[in-house]
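Reproducibility note. Readers wishing to regenerate the assembly model reported in the main text can use the exact inputs given here. Chain order matters: entities are listed in the order in which they were concatenated for prediction.
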Amino acid sequence: MRGAPPWRLMNAAERRRYWWGHWRLGVPAAVTLGLLVVMTAPLMVSVPVFPELGLLSIFVWATFQPRLMAPWAAFLLGLLADLLFAQPLGVNATLFAAAAGFVRMFEARYGHHAHGFDWAVAGGVVMAFELLSWQLQALAGQPIPLAPLGWQVLTSIASYPLVVSLCAWAQRRAFGPEPGQGSGRL
Amino acid sequence: MNWTPAPRRSSAMRREQNLALVGAVVTGAVIATGLLMLLVARVNPAAGARVRGAALDVVTPIWSVVRAPFDGLGRAADFGSEYLGAVSRNRVLEAELVAARAELQRAAAERRALAQLKALQAVRDPARQVVAMVRIVSATPGSVVRSAMVAAGTGDGVVVGLPVISPGGLIGRTIEAGNHAARVLLLTDPASRIPVIVARTGQAGLAVGSNQPYLEFRDRVGAEVPLRAGDRLITSGDGGVFPPGVPVGTILAGAADPPRVRPAATPFGVGYVTIESAFLPLPVDETGPVFDAPVPVEAQRQGGTVGKLRQPEPPQ
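Running the prediction on these inputs yields the following structure tokens for the assembly.
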């Protein structure tokens, strides 16, 4: 672990706290996984209206904790999503990884995080995600119609503030209120 | 413990640049892997069936526990509303019962006659066989695949490709099976194709899902005969998976192209469904593939299939 204080400077309690503190590394993935499981919830509607919580969570965590939501982590989460939603293996995996990579690239260019701006970018990402998953499903030999996915785009954009506040809550609980202070970014 | 790390030097910045480059390469490799997996899924759709089953086994119990209190609330609400509407419903039902009794007597006589005719003709009717009777635990409305999970798996005799039927009509068929859970492909999924006939005219066709609340009625035999709104579609039994005569849906508008079908049964809020064994499963050919030339002895020794030699066709 880079940035760890020298071992001998820490007393026993501090060492324990340091080592046990590593559970934070799994927080972004755990929150995303939880949201993916929530997406399999029984909902009494017969069109695909459930928001893409997993994708939004990947998007948000890639800005909150870029190192803990690297594209390879998003890829593994996407594989789990494919298993949970009975899609061909690779649809969500490719697109989640691409979303995390896109956020990383985008951050390097536009480093500001006004809420409305992030919301608009998330909307664009969701739209691109649905279009590409339509194409990738066809590539995997299971074509699906495009029009019903529009519902999902709408609900996903509407549920972005909810996901962002959930992730912000998890971020503040796990990593402390101010990034860069004490137990800030790992 | 007051400690500050050493200030960064230019070598650290170079290191960061290298790390960014490695990160970009890893991202590209990961995305390429995903696309490769898609191609594998295209060639071999059954890949990863075991893993899928395991995932089902993990998720299904969660929802069967979480939804239990909601089911209780729903039952309580149902009970209340039923209690309030009981008297008026009772009157309607009694009127219907009188008509239905007469119909039932006629039907009983006809059934007896049919059984006699079938016995005379030595018709062999395969019987429908219930494998498991389960609750639908969860349906996935969030994804592009319209499926539902049920809490019965290979441990209960549920395998891939069995029809799932509710009292109202057809629900779908199983596509994945874990030890204690299975996934049901619903009628509304774009990959679902149900061989049906129109009960009134006997025309055969396919009820195809489209990720919408309704189905589409495609590939109808005898398209010149017009359909009417309200025509009922029932399974034809073609293909051997679904037993014949199970309600699938009702035509919404006969003039539309393709005609829209409202499913007879919805998987949401349905009580119990039965998973039946495949009605007439396709016979498995034990002899293996047919070859034009005999398989070499060396290949057979290494576990190659023996196969059958193609017989020359008799001269006409």
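We highlight two features of this model. Residues 179-186 of chain A have pLDDT under 50 and may be disordered. The longest helix of chain A spans residues 115-139.
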